[in-house]
Amino acid sequence: MPKKIKFESFKNAFLIESANVFYEDVNVNNKWLDFLNNLIFEYSKKNVLVKTEKNDIFLFNVDDFKFYTKYDDECFLKSADNLIKKIDPIKKKNNLIMNKIVNEVKQSFDSSLEIKNPRYHREEIFHDNWADNESVFDIDVVKTCEALTSPELRYISKSLGDIKNKTILDIGCGLGECSVYFAIKGANVTSTDISSGMLDFTNKLASRYNVDLKTHLSTAEDLNLNSSEKFDIIYSGNLMHHVDINKTLINIKQHLKPDGCLITWDPMAYNPIINVYRKIAKNVRTEDEHPFTLKDFNLYNNHFKSVKKKYFWFFTLVIFLIMSLIQRRNPNKERFWKVVVKESEKWKYIYLPLEKIDEIILTLLPPLRLLCWNVVIISKN
After folding, report:
1. Cα gap 204→198, rounded to integer Å
2. Structure pTM?
3. Are 248 and 169 in contact (CB under 8 A)?
4. Quick one: which of 72, 129, 198, 323 has the most CB atoms within 10 Å?
């Protein structure tokens, strides 16, 4: 048989057998198909060379194959009495050999999957599902970042000042509200997330608001950006308590300009009432969350010369008690921290006086800050 035909037969047999490899997760299936599409096949003497994007090289001898089949995979021949099932032994042997070859190449694919990390897998699936159940038309980007009941983002916006033409990296961008808000304010924004669903949603939200931004699929611990990419501001909202904080900070510093700043905000671990809420609201949270402790603050101090903290939601947490105990709203069906922003006008007359009380009490009694819900951390070198 001519070499060219042997080569094409090998390649076709490989792709046919590869098509039989399925994953339970649709996203991994898609990545497998992309992986197959990017394989390079070359023929050299008796060997077929298969090369992956990672430059893994596999050599297979085409003489292992008998490029001949007497029948299809299965065929039925009529006899006088019944149907006799015949399986071509050569085809069967070829299939077994090809199955081994596909599995050998597949190991390269499996080893490159971040999803092999169980935590990454859980986070990706959770946030993909979240994105699937949202609509860009239900999100008011400006209100999300400027509402009365969004004190963290109001404080962050005030601290940043004019961000026009600044480069901003939004790590763990989620639905993209802040990414789009920064872009509206004139910043050049790059948004990363572990969830392709969240990134797709962010792009749709940006289109709705007629702004441009770049999206990039990655984990926080390995941003997988070009080492030359540096940013004036790196922002991360409600992300750090999902990740390995120390690894993420090391990664972030590589992409922060010398005079740049890192701004993060996350929940605290010490308020017993909030911890009761966490135990109840399991459907809207991931099992790997780890709210901030004093030990986590020390990690910031180890990496940055200047670390400034601002705490939010102490007496103002009364609103959430009203939502839960008086209004009897289900924390597994509504994300309270999102709802309170959408309903900001409704809570205005309760929130405003309590916010002023918070400012006074937290200034006079600093230890109470640890009982707050959220903390904003601004870090610089």
Report:
1. 10
2. 0.71
3. no
4. 198
